[in-house]
Amino acid sequence: MIVMKFGGSSVANAERIRHVAGIVKSQIKRKPVLVLSAMGDTTDLLLETAEEAVSRGTFSLSEIKELHLKTMEELGLSESQTEIKELLEKLERLLSGISLIREISARARDYLVSFGERMSVRIAAAYFNSIRVRARAWDAWDLGFISNANYGFAELLNESWTKIPQKILPLMEKNELPVVTGFIAQEPGGSITTLGRGGSDLTASTIAAACKAEEAQFWKDTDGILTADPRIVKNPKPVKMMTYAAAAELAYFGAQMLHPRAMQPCMKTKTPVVVKNSYNPDAEGTHILASLRRKQPPILAISCKRNITLVDIVSTRMLGQYGFLAEVFSLFAKYNLSVDMVATSEVSISLTLDAAGDLNILKKDLSRIASVEIKTGKAIITIVGDVSRSSEILARAFQICRLMGVKVQMISHGASKLNISFIINDGEAAEVIRALHEEFFEGGNP
Ligand code: ASP
Ligand code: MG
Known about the structure:
Blueprint (H helix, E strand, L loop, with lengths): L1 E5 L7 H12 L6 E5 L5 H15 L5 H13 L9 H18 L4 H25 L4 E4 L20 H14 L4 E5 L2 E3 L5 E3 L5 H11 L4 E6 L20 E3 H9 L10 H7 L3 E5 L8 E4 L9 E16 L9 H11 L4 E6 L3 E7 L5 H8 L3 E15 L4 H15 L5 E4 L5 E7 L3 H14 L4
Parallel strand pairs: 1-2, 1-7, 2-4, 3-4, 7-9, 8-10
Antiparallel strand pairs: 5-6, 9-10, 11-13, 11-14, 12-13, 14-16, 15-16
Helix pairs in contact: 2-4, 2-5, 4-5, 7-9, 8-9, 12-13
The site of aspartic acid (ASP) has 12 residues, from loops.
């Protein structure tokens, strides 16, 4: 068996769904399990609609309704062939409720966004049946996806690992294509949860690992994982092969290609992963494996995380002391702030946060033990590659920054041995990435 996951843009409309069906059919002998995201931007639209309901007390579902009903019509599906009408009605009732009470809980928000995936799998499964590929839509919880109740970022419970193969493996005998909702699960009490934005990747990777699939395929809209963000760099190239660890590193640092946790399940079981382009299925894509035999170039890819806050903490009390770092970090924990990068010297600590809301209370608290400066509008540039060649990579990267007059404000050379990250001003990020890409990928000097 294999797992094939298609993201929102791959199932954005009737034409895309037909195209996906073609790709799936071409591999039907390998016994695929299909995992789908919500159609197009449905998740964003749902969240925006809810916001409107809360802030203004009114909402319009017309865009979402039209997208799904029009797609069904174009695919030649009648309303009785799917449960879309019922789902849209329920969704409408939910939004009416939200617009009355003018607030939405984290639990209600997860319930709300779940409609996206629940509708997309039903439309796709009905379409497969209409072209004589026997298929059935599944909500992930009916296939063993049980999570904790951490709404918005739920984590699957260990029992999922036994339940998922128990449910899915028997389906593989049935000669019926399972079409499974990505992104969503249920907590033990029965409420719907979500696994974090982009979570369909994690659903697919979990099924592949738990069922010991032959391969997990992630179908996206680029020719694999690219050397840089195509919105920034003109001609990024697909990376042919990388390790799970490198792929995870890239996801953490903003490459937006894969869900940050998506590699974990397949990494555990060494299930081969391939990232492919649904718009260009013949392209080789990126193969992700446990280890690589071929010699790798010094750097695989460059990614960037924008809108970062840098916190500089200086205290002479640190000199020869113990417990100071613990004290500092306990304050970040107290305010639920997740720290990304850290650099320390004898008397100072620099660290980064994703752009957070109001940091004034944190600053006040920290000021009791040290002097603190908080600087917003920064970017983390991450170079993922062969860090055994870090001196060379650093020399070349910093030479570029020097020539561009860009000040590097903090450096971290990850313990993972895979990434070198540094902080610059956000406004300079795009240009620096373009220059780095040219240096490492476009010259004749890899
Ligand atoms: N539909 C969800 C999102 O847009 C999950 C996914 O696409 O993986 O975040
Ligand atoms: Mg999406």
